[in-house]
Amino acid sequence: MAAMTFVQIIEYETTRAAEMDQLMDEWLTATEGKRTASHGMLMHDRDKPAHYVNIVEFPSYEQAMRNSELPETQQISGRMQELCTGEPTYTNLEVLRDERW
C-alpha cells in the first residue's frame, strides 16, 4: 500500500499572535532543508479572536513523526506552548480523499 498524505491539525488559543508568528518564522529558518512538512496553513477564527488553527501537511505519517522529532521542532513547540492560554490540541489525520473544486 502506498503512503498516504498525512495532515496534522494544531488548535490553540493565544493573545500573543505576533510572537507566535515570529516563532513560525524561526522554525521555518531553523528547519530549512530538514523539515518534512510540505504545506502549512494558519487560520484565525473570526468568531473567537484568540482561537487559531494550524494545518500542516506531510507526505506520510512517518515523515510527520520525523519532523516532530527534529530538535528545532521540539524547541519551538515548547516555546509555542508558553505563548498559549491553555494546552494546544493535536489531531492526526490520514487523507482519504483530496479534491479541489
From TrEMBL:
It comes from the Bacteria. This is Antibiotic biosynthesis monooxygenase. It comes from Kitasatospora kazusensis.
